[in-house]
Amino acid sequence: MSFENNSLVYITVKNEKEGMNIAKLAIEGKLAACANLYPKIQSIYEWNNQIQIDKESVLILKTKKKKYKELEKLIIENHSYDIPCILLLPIDNGYKNFMNWIEERLD
């Protein structure tokens, strides 16, 4: 079995509650096999010509590349930011049994 279609989706969210909501919706909708939520991070970025330092959360979803467009739509519809950070990251390799589990979960 080939796993080149398994991917991670990295998302910054306003807080743990927003991340949990998006994760649950994605898993219930079979758009992600599972999620990791890092509830407290600090983000530093420029917005409106000013350096911003904000507390955020990071959500990482394990999915298949073919699910990305629908997953992106779900994230945007349930995200509080005007321009959310949503990144699709390919998985080059991984533990065979776990990679199989992602595949089976999302078929």
Indicate the mean pLDDT: 95
Assigned CATH class: Alpha Beta
What is the H/E order? EHEEHEH
Strand content range = 35-45%
Uncertain residue segments: none
What number of domains?
1
Question: What composes the largest sheet?
Answer: 4 strands, antiparallel
At CATH's second level, what is the architecture?
Answer: 2-Layer Sandwich
- DSSP strand tally: 4
The quaternary organization reads as: single chain
**Helical residues, percent:** 25-40%
So how many helices? 3
Backbone CA Rg: 14 Å
Morphology:
elongated
Kindly report how far apart the N and C termini lie: 14 Å
**Could you say which structural class the secondary elements and strand pairing correspond to?**
alpha+beta
The CATH topology is given as Alpha-Beta Plaits
Read across the widest sheet, the strand sequence of neighbours is 2-3-1-4
What does the model show?
- By secondary structure, the protein is of the alpha+beta class.
- The protein has one domain (6-105): Alpha-Beta Plaits (2-Layer Sandwich).
- The protein is built from 3 helices and 4 strands; from the N terminus they run βαββαβα.
- The protein has helices at residues 16-28, 68-78, 96-105, and strands spanning 6-13, 34-47, 50-64, 86-90.
- A 4-stranded antiparallel sheet has the order 2-3-1-4.
- It is elongated and about 45 Å long.
- The chain starts with 5 loop residues before the first strand and ends with a helix.
- The relative contact order is 0.31.
- The model has no long low-confidence stretch (mean pLDDT 95).
Keywords summarizing the entry:
107 residues; alpha+beta; Alpha-Beta Plaits; 4-stranded antiparallel beta sheet; 3 helices; 4 strands
